[in-house]
Input
Amino acid sequence: MDCRGASGLIQLFTWRRKMRQAMDVAATSPAFVPAVIEPAPLPVVPEPPPAPERPRTRRSRSSGTAVELAIDGVAVRIARGADAKVIAAGIDALKMAR
Output
């Protein structure tokens, strides 16, 4: 065998040995990276816009009034919780004013 042929065989076996060593290292290392599952972040919900302010209305002085009777320009206001006799007297007063 000449020297050139022997050097080719040595090179071939060197490549083969290096390939086996690389395969052995690959076999000992994990083939896959372990998966890590994290909970999904909660969606960000924007705050609702503030409700528009309603214009404040002035309350009349008769806010405690339950019934207001007005006939021919004469008004009688009857408060809440009034007795039936008081209501009847108010209606009678309107009738007399006519």
